[in-house]
Design goal:
- The protein has 164 residues and is an alpha+beta fold.
- The protein has one domain.
- It is built from three helices and ten strands; from the N terminus they run αββααββββββββ.
- It has a six-stranded mixed β-sheet. Strands 4-3-7-10 form a four-stranded antiparallel β-sheet.
- The protein is globular and about 45 Å long.
- It starts with a helix and ends with a strand.
């Protein structure tokens, strides 16, 4: 009986504890036809908070339609927070589009074409100014090769080597 009461007390306490949210984003980088494509999946409310924090030029609005008036700001923010180089050639991000799916936005950027990838160097500390426990998962696809990396506040940069 004592074990049963202890179990219910632990269960009751654990149900009143606030759980910490998970802050994660996924970035995919791959060659396109004549360009480099970068897709980033972010939670929409986190994106709104980051843009609001980044600039007083942020245009608030409902999640369903705040992208269009903030396209220039989105480009500026991600170019400031992401440093991408392929074979030591810096890649500037050009915002192309955003798709809303549930509570996430899938942002698509393009950069200039680079050929013969051997190394992808990336720093991606977006959202880390708001969420110290943010993780940005990096996926690089080149031909049949797929490389993965994880960036955090303590490790904001990685180099992924493409084998040939």
């Amino acid at each position: 009986m004592v074990k049963m009461k202890l179990f219910f007390i632990v269960l009751l306490l654990s149900s009143t504890v606030n759980y910490h949210a998970i802050y994660v984003s996924v970035m995919e980088i791959y060659p396109g036809d004549g360009f480099t494509e970068i897709k980033i999946k972010v939670f929409s409310d986190d994106l709104q908070n980051a843009l609001r924090n980044y600039s007083d030029k942020y245009h608030p609005g409902p999640i369903s339609n705040f992208i269009e008036p903030n396209q220039t700001l989105i480009t500026s923010y991600f170019n400031n927070k992401i440093s991408l180089a392929i074979n030591d050639t810096p890649i500037a991000l050009e915002f192309l589009s955003a798709e809303l799916e549930n509570d996430a936005h899938f942002l698509t950027f393009r950069g200039p074409e680079t050929r013969g990838w051997s190394e992808v160097k990336i720093r991606a500390d977006y959202f880390m100014e708001l969420f110290p426990d943010q993780s940005n998962i990096i996926s690089v696809s080149y031909g049949k090769e797929k490389l993965m990396g994880r960036l955090t506040a303590s490790e904001k940069e990685t180099i992924l080597k493409i084998s040939r």
